[in-house]
Amino acid sequence: MTKNYQKEIQTKLTKGLLDMIILQFLDQEPMHGYQLITKIRKGFGVYFGPSTVYPLLGALEKKGYITSAWNMETERPRKVYSLTKEGETVLNFTEGSLNLICRTLSNDTKTKIESIPVNSTDLQIPKKPFEYASI
Question: Which of 22, 60, 72, 88 is most buried, most CB within 10 Å of its CB?
């Protein structure tokens, strides 16, 4: 796998989970938008600019997952975002769902490796490829 392909996969995954990544960072502490952009870049090696992050923050606030307040105590006023109880609930559910998906993929991969057919007559087709658990 080439470095470019690895970077492409990392970027796609990070972009697809960006709202949850933001909620996770805000679960640690309240932050302003530029702090979030910097933490995402440092933590995931992917840069998302203000034109991506700020509209997403606005959407998360409209959904009630985060709140914002202006911090006027610094030299430059900044809008600081905090996680709400509803945001915590969504974050916990999403973490549980992602863990379930990873476990399912991991188990499915192990099953596939263990059941590699010697010839076509040994081919095993699982009856239930995914098991759903309530979270």
Answer: 22
Span 5-29, average pLDDT: 93
Q: Work out the average pLDDT over 29-40.
A: 97
Q: Domain count for the chain, please give it.
A: 1
Q: Reading across the β-sheet that carries 31-32, which strands appear in turn?
A: 31-32, 78-83, 66-71
Question: With pLDDT > 90 as the criterion, what percentage of the chain qualifies?
Answer: 57
The CB-based long-range contact list for 100-108 (8 Å cut-off, 24+ gap) reads 100/133, 100/135, 104/130, 104/131
What is the domain extent for residue 35? 3-113
Are the C-beta atoms of 127 and 92 separated by less than 8 Å?
no
Contact at 8 Å (CB) between 88 and 27? yes
Using 50, 70 and 90 to split pLDDT, how confident is the model at 109?
Answer: low
Which residues on neighbouring strands pair with residue 70, listed in sequence order? 79
CATH number, domain at 101?
1.10.10.10
3 state SS of 41: helix
